[in-house]
Structures are given as C-alpha cells and as structure tokens.
Amino acid sequence: MFADRAKIFIRSGKGGDGHVSFRRELYVPNGGPDGGDGGRGGDVIFEVDEGLNTLQDYRHRQKYAAKDGEQGGKRRCHGKDAEDIILRVPEGTVIKEAESGKVIADMSGENRRQVILKGGKGGLGNQHFATSTMQIPKYAQPGQPSQELWVNLELKVIADVGLIGFPNVGKSTLLSRVTNAQPKIANYHFTTLNPNLGVVDLPDGRGFVIADIPGLIEGASEGVGLGHEFLRHIERTKLMIHVVDAAGAEGRDPVEDIYKINAELNAYNPEIAKRPQVIAANKIDVIYADGEDPLVRLKEEFEPQGVKVFPISGVTGEGMKELLYYVSDQLKDLDQKPVVFEQEYFPEEELIYEDLPYTVEKEDEVYVVEGPKIEKMLGYTNLDSEKGFAFFQKFLKDTGILDELEAAGIEEGDTVRMYGLQFDYYK
C-alpha cells in the first residue's frame, strides 16, 4: 500500500549539565572554580531525499530521539555536543503538530532542510558564576531540557495538473499516453491505488507535471471509499483536468458525474474547488451515433460556465494534442509560484509556554526567578538579538512573572537574577 501519511514522536537532545569543580594543584592553595560547560543536545532535522516517494519507513518505526549533550568536566573541559538526528522524507511532505493540525514545515520548493526541534543548550559550569562576593560558587547550570512532539507527516504530491474523475473513466490510460508514467491499469473500480506522477513534454519545451489522483466517489470528502485518502494530493495543483466517460460505457451520466465530483471537492476544500478546470470527454471512440450527442450536452452545460470541453480518446490518442496545449497555455497565465503551506506552529515558542513551575524570591536585595520554565525559556531564546529580547519581555509579561515580581515589592532599578542572567528592572 502506498504510504502517504504517518504519525511519529520526535525528541531533541537535552543539553549536558555544567560541572562544579575547583582547581586543586600544588602551590595553588585556593584554586578558583574550573567546572566546564555541558555540550549541546542534538537537533531533530528533516531533510528532503530525492530518492524517496513514500513515507513507508515511518510506518514501521514511530519514535525518533536525538542524543543528549555530554556533561561538562573538570579543568574547564567542555562536554561533547551530541549529533543531530536527520529524518529523510520525500519532497512534498508536510509536517504538522499532531494535536492542533497546524503546519510546522512544508518540505517542498526551496525548503530542503529544516530544524524542527532544537537540542537544549549545555549548562554553564561553575567557572561562570564567580563574583567578587561569591568566589567559590557551588552552583552549575543544568543543561536545557529537550523538546518533544508528536507530529503527523503528510505527503502531498507536487504536480501542476491533477487528473480527477470517477473510477474507470480513463485517467490512468490518459496519463500513460501523454507522459512517461506507467500506471497499472485494469478494468475494475479503484484500479489506481497510488497517485501516479508523469511529466508532459511538449515540443516547444512547455512541459508540466501531471498527477493521476485515484478515483473519487460520492461521499469521498466524508471518508467513504478510497478516494478521500488521496484528496490531499490535489492541494498543490494549479489546474485540474476533469476526466469523464463521455460514452457512458458503464451507464453513467457524464454531466451528473462532473457535478458530483465537484461537490466532493467543495466539501473537502472550497478553495480547491474554485481552481480552474478543463473537461476531458474521454472514450469518444466508443460513442455511437444513435440518440443525443453527449459531447454537445457537455459543451452546452459547462462552456457557458467558462469550463472548456475537449473530446478525447485515451485509446487512440485523438484530441490529446489540443487538450495538452490548451492546459499548457492556461498554466502560463496562472501564478508560477509553487503551492507551499505556510508555517503555523513554532515549536520553540509553543513549548516554552508549557505549564512548568517557577519561583520568585528575594535574596539579599536581589529578586531571583528560577525553575524549569525559566531554564527552558533562557535555553531557547537568543537575548543578543532584538527579536529574541522582545520575545523575552513578552514571555515575562504573558506568563505572569512581571506581576509576581511587582507583588513581591520590586521597584525600578532593583536587580533581577535568572540563573546566569542578571538585569535591572524598569517598567
């Protein structure tokens, strides 16, 4: 079975703890602190692999964790940084936070590699905490905690054009005729179980990528049948070729079929339903002269709506050239930028706001704020940057820390200490 979805657990590495130690050398009776810093925990990185086209590997293994950083050592020895863990995925994979469904990353277009979870920074050794009033600090900073998430991986194929329509209308035959794709074709419902991609090469170099989306049926948007499994693959397409059995070989009405499929698209995602379509009236080689001409009926119904109808035969190739050149011309006028899903979930910011404890206390005229929540925030925030410092201020306000400092009696100019960070308080 084609694997285009997976749910996995990812965890970055914890930072190594800083070390507490003091110089003990001959002729140095009062050696100062020399505890080394801990190493950085490993990042979780996703990377596009051109050789992959499914998420099959992630069906067999569900948990992926980077290594923790090494602890600091004596004599200012820095702990070893942990290796990053790299998860390779096919192009077009969208990574979403499992609970909210928000997009973390879209591995397509120019985005070939992205750090999803950062490893914790290593803690500072006690060498950093010596002051004129505290010459033998017995405290070292613990390494910053790891980050962890359950994420959903969804593969959304990257194609300019999608072939849509009921099962058995000839989409796979059309694809095999106009591209180098070789889909397996048989005469029964849901013959296509995988989205098949092919490249259309026109003589003047105006090629495009086309995807055969497995057959939809009524109720597909609600999960009926297999069609709903593949609706996500239409999401990147700019234009759709709606293939219908114009001959009604299975007793179907082509006009009704088009309306039914469009209703499913609209129920799944109204924005997709508004994208340009062209109708490929297939199987004209088996239309017989008696009775109403289905091609005339299709054109009278849909061309006034701005949807062009092309009579084609997937078997003989009749009408294919006209259809493909029309599609190529339409694509020229559409936005050439690839459809990329914007990031909606930012792990660093979201996870910092987790419900972790902290304390606000006054020690020798200094207000000390400590706890896992503070360590996590400091570990993932670059206070040297303008954006990082603005986030730091917002964090203090949003989490109620500023309110607690004021309740404890802090006044302008008083000193606040948060582990290795010390600053004066001003409103």
TrEMBL record:
Gene3D superfamilies: GTP-binding protein OBG, C-terminal domain, GTP1/OBG domain, P-loop containing nucleotide triphosphate hydrolases. The keyword Nucleus does not apply. SUPFAM superfamilies: Obg GTP-binding protein C-terminal domain (SSF102741), Obg GTP-binding protein N-terminal domain (SSF82051), P-loop containing nucleoside triphosphate hydrolases (SSF52540). Its main location: cytoplasm. It is found in: Cytoplasm. Residues 1-158 form the Obg domain. GO terms for cellular component: cytoplasm. The keyword Magnesium applies. It comes from the Bacteria. Belongs to the TRAFAC class OBG-HflX-like GTPase superfamily. OBG GTPase family. HAMAP family: GTPase_Obg. This is GTPase Obg. It comes from Dorea phocaeensis.
